[in-house]
Amino acid sequence: MSVAKGRSINWNVGVRAVVAVICTFLFIAPVLWMVTTAFKTGNQAFSGEIQWFFTPTLENFAEVLGGTRLTYALINSLQVSVISSIVAILLASGIAYPLARYEFRGRDHIAGTILSLRIVPPIVTIIPLFLLMRTIGLNGSLLSIIILHVFMNLPLAVWLLRGFYEDVPKEIEEAGAIDGLGSIGIFFRMVLPLAMPGVASTALLCFVFSWNEFLFASVLSNAGSQTVTVALTQYVTPVGTEWTLIMAAGTVVAVPVWLAALAAQKYLVRGLSLGAVK
Fold first, then answer.
1. DSSP assignment string, 87-144
2. What is the pLDDT of residue 41?
3. pLDDT band at 277, cuts 50/70/90?
4. Residue 232: CB partners within 8 Å, gap ≥ 6?
5. How far apart are CA 270 and CA 64, in angstroms?
6. CA–CA dist 57, 26 (Å, integer)
7. 65, 219 in Cβ contact below 8 A?
8. Domain locations in the chain as residue ranges
9. With contact defined as beta carbons under 8 Å apart, do 168 and 125 qualify?
10. CA distance to 25, 215, 232, per residue, from 235 (Å)
11. What is the pLDDT of residues 71-87, one digit of tens each?
12. Beta bridge pairs of residue 241
């Protein structure tokens, strides 16, 4: 029995390893294709042959970074993503912590209603939001995009942070109260440090969602407030699509997200285990 059981375990491990390798390849292959194409000339990219070895060129990156449009768009996207993520986390914490700690009637219904707002298709709200921003004079500004990205990320951030705060033992808060700390002191000095991996994971998700958002940015921005997702469309013209430039620009645009993920890697690993269903 022990031998058969050992073989069964080894078989299961082998199947899982194969599935993991296949899934990893499916995720990485498009990224590798984008990066390698960015270092190719037009003739190399459209030769019709798979080229495992080729002479790389930096001409595409020089042309992409030599223009001011993508550079300004990168700066705009960094401002929008960082500010909107910070504001969303602050607001979400103020909502999620009471939902996690205080017992009151309708608490779960409120949390479910907040999450349901994230399910509403953005295209349904774009016209009213455009008219609202134009009425208050914010249309075409970065502030309008930041505001919408905050409310876009807020429902999911509230839902995730609620689970992370619920994982913090109540005994720690009781000990803080005995030491004379108020509710704000308990949250910032005791609860928040323990939930920081989850908070960092949620902040990274908000950053990525804001960085990749296209609809609001395309409708509410002008030439001076475009984000990277909108700026990438400049390489698609009626004459044709400049694929090598798109790949180079896409690689440049992806770098900040990769760096953010690497910087928050230690928090991500711990954050994935927090707030999970037990």
1. HHHHHHHHHHHHHHH---TTHHHHHHHHHHGGGS-HHHHHHHHHHHHHHTT-TTSHHH
2. 80
3. very low
4. 246, 249, 250, 253
5. 37
6. 26
7. no
8. 2-38, 60-271
9. no
10. 28, 18, 6
11. 899 999 999 999 999 99
12. 236
**How many whole angstroms separate alpha carbon 1 and alpha carbon 175?**
51
Q: How many CB atoms lie within 10 A of CB 207?
A: 26
Give the pLDDT confidence score for residue 33 in this predicted structure: 86
β-partners of residue 236 are 241
Regarding predicted confidence, which is higher, 172 or 2?
172
Q: Give the Cα separation of 203 and 46 in Å (integer).
A: 39
Look up tokens 């020089």; give the residue. Answer: 62
Q: What is the pTM of this model?
A: 0.83
* 236 vs 264, higher pLDDT: 236
Cβ atoms of 45 and 226 closer than 8 Å: no
Residues 6+ apart with CB under 8 A from 105: none
> What average pLDDT does the segment 94-122 reach?
85
CA atoms of 193 and 168, how far apart (whole Å): 10
CATH superfamily assigned to domain 60-271: MetI-like (1.10.3720.10)
C-alpha of 70 from chain center = 20
